[in-house]
Amino acid sequence: MSTTEPLLQVRDLRVTFATERGPLRAVDGVSFELAAGEILGVVGESGAGKSVALQSVLGLLGGTAQVEGSVRLRGRELIGLPSAEMQALRGGDVAMVFQDPMTALTPVYSIGWQIVEQLRVHTELSRRAARARAIELLAAVGLPSPAAQFERFPHQLSGGMRQRAVIAMALSCQPALLIADEPTTALDVTVQAQILSLIDGLRRELGLAVVLITHDMGVVAEVADRVMVMYAGRVVERGSARELFEEAWHPYTWGLLGSIPPLEGPRPRRLPSIRGAPPSLQALPTGCAFAPRCGCSQARCTSTTPVLDGDGAHAAACFVAPGERAAARERCALMAPAT
Fold first, then answer.
1. Given pLDDT bands bounded at 50, 70 and 90, which one contains residue 31?
2. Cα-based torsion angle of the residue sequence 239, 99, 93, 30 in order, rounded to the nearest 10 degrees
3. pTM, whole model, 2 decimals?
């Protein structure tokens, strides 16, 4: 982490949706910081609150969501920012790469037209200069024959090419912060590796801060500097990527790491999996939300909610004592046997 003031500071972020069954707390007390040139990986199963937390940073949740807490970008508070100011911020200082590039692009306009439109809204470039800049961006993200791709429509590009075009659009106004929501979903492994390499190269070249939302621990291992693990709307562990992969502290993180195919040793016939399913956010169990699925659960886990506690930047919300973690990881029947 940089010693200067963080680019992004999130404090006690809470997001509640109004539903027919009553309030639904999708994000509960999330806090983190991000420095320029850093990649933060946010991981967890579907429904953990990853995308909702980051979409709230951009004010994309709509009127049914109540957002509380503090989100500061370069010291500027974004929660409660007037709609016009937030609109100017999106695509300018902050950009987002959405999970599905096909739905992120308008099908009736060419790729180039959409990039030019964004440049014209957020900069003072002429139409000719914006066109030249758009072609430069398409070349920068590795699209072949960028001038020809400029004229094409989304359906004329492959999934990997569309994702590159979305990244080019996101970077068009040189944002300080890029939020990438599952940018490699539905891409084959070769294209996935190219997209991850592209994001990593751009952050090194441009000093871009990146929040990478994913459920894939392999993706996190590839590019992230730090990792934040979310479960049922809360952060259950955070730390550097090296710390989490070498010595994770939370049983949920152990389960996620266990889903990665081993690089050495015998190949299992079946990968281990975390037993059970995530709880409904409208019917969370008392105490630790992960306790019903955890083989290390203790009596107090079902009555008291653990808080993040740890050694400096590395922290976990778990009652397993530091000296007992190694043994607990061995004995806890968290994952189904590989049969």
1. very high
2. -40
3. 0.88
